Amino acid sequence: MKAVAVTPKKQNSVRLVRIEKPKVSDIKNGRGVLVEVLRAGACGTDREINNGEYGVAPKDFNFLVLGHENFGRVIEIGKNVTELKIGNYVVATVRRPCGNSIYDTIGMQDFTTSDKYFERGISRLHGFMAEYYVEDADFLIKIPPAIAEIAVLLEPLSIIEKGLKQAADIQERLKIWHPKTAAVLGVGNVGLLTVMALRMRGFQVHGFGKQAGSGYLNAKLCESIGATYDSTDDLPLIESTKNYGEYDLVFECTGYSPIIFDAMQTLNENGILILSSVTGGTRKTDQVPSDKINQMFVLGNRAMVGTVNAGREHFEMGVKDLALCEAMHAGWLGQMLTHKVVGLENYEKVFEILNNSTQYKAIKTYFEVGKI
Ligand code: BGC
């Protein structure tokens, strides 16, 4: 079968490969599920892997099949699979409990402390930019047909859901926490999904980006779901609290690490800052009012947490938000699916769009591998 692969750590090595179609019996405990891939999303992580920044091939392979954002249909199941049927739509989680930490042992591999981690399409396991994959049913999330068209957004959304769940868990310290306002920094794919998830929870949401608002689809999407959008060129983040007040929750999705110090200064007392950008560079900043920030966190009981990877419960939370958003704002999520590329053989187009996403005005670029 066809798959899109890279040679990890080698720049721009993306190519089409032919590999053996997997079999249900590859999973030995009778819990194997053969899935026909219908859609595979592409994101900054795939771009960075193809830039040679990270990525690890599976044992005995000199290439890594890319793809962690996925959506497919079950076409065969092992004898011990009771929760899924042939024809069901599914999304697979990404990380597998193959590390040696206690969190892997208890099925919380998204919190692994193991240096070696196993993520499909990223590290040590082949991904989903392929015609088929086989997976243990434990790692598959059933998708209601009503959200099939937009379910390729579930994997990126799961990271946000994990951030919001962690915030809720941390804020249990307060016994009562009734957050009202949130700022979302960056309104690309991840930022827009964050705006959506917070609107579904009833927050007043203020989105911020670099681009001017007028004629900018991402800004329109913020506004049509009841959030504001401001360009930080017109309204610097720190200034924005004069208009909107201090934020109970700030969610960072820009990929630009210096902004986190500004973000810390916009938090309300008892507020929480969630960081989601993976910033593999070497950027440094010394323009930090450290006394002020330290004082704000100490005297104001503020908190900060990172979110990466997601467990089953976060994917399940995401399914509910996608369904609620479709019910409340039909078609809104579909507008995020800006660039469909039909066929894995057209991988060059996908990477061209990923590498020039501003020019292409791309929010989500994805392969259509099969028909829904
Ligand atoms: C994926 C996560 C993964 C992270 C780091 C992200 O793009 O969504 O599942 O843990 O990359 O590899």
What does this structure look like?
With 372 residues, the chain is α/β, with parallel strands linked by helices. The protein has two domains: 2-143 and 338-368, Alpha-Beta Complex (Quinone Oxidoreductase, Chain A, domain 1); 158-306, NAD(P)-binding Rossmann-like Domain (Rossmann fold). Helices cover 27% and strands 25% of the residues. The strands form four sheets. Strands 3, 5, 6, 10, 11, 18 and 19 form a seven-stranded mixed beta sheet that branches. Strands 14-13-12-15-16-17 form a six-stranded parallel beta sheet, sandwiched between helices. β12 (181-185), α4 (189-200) and β13 form a beta-alpha-beta unit. The longest helix has 17 residues, at 154-170. The two termini are 19 Å apart. The structure holds beta-D-glucopyranose. Beta-D-glucopyranose binds next to α3. The site of beta-D-glucopyranose has 12 residues, from α3.
Q: From N to C, what is the helix and strand string?
A: EEEHEEEEHEEEEHEHEHEHEHEHEHEHHE
Determine the mean pLDDT.
97
What's the number of domains? 2
CATH architecture of the largest domain: Alpha-Beta Complex
Say what the CATH topology of the largest domain is: Quinone Oxidoreductase, Chain A, domain 1
Strand content: 25-35%
The number of helical runs is: 11
Described by strand count, sense and barrel closure, the largest sheet is: 7 strands, mixed
What is the level 1 CATH name of the largest domain? Alpha Beta
What compounds sit in this structure?
beta-D-glucopyranose
Principal-axes shape call: globular
Number of strands: 19
The low-confidence parts are none
Q: What gap, in angstroms, lies between the N and C termini?
A: 19 Å
Estimate the helix proportion, in percent. Answer: 25-40%
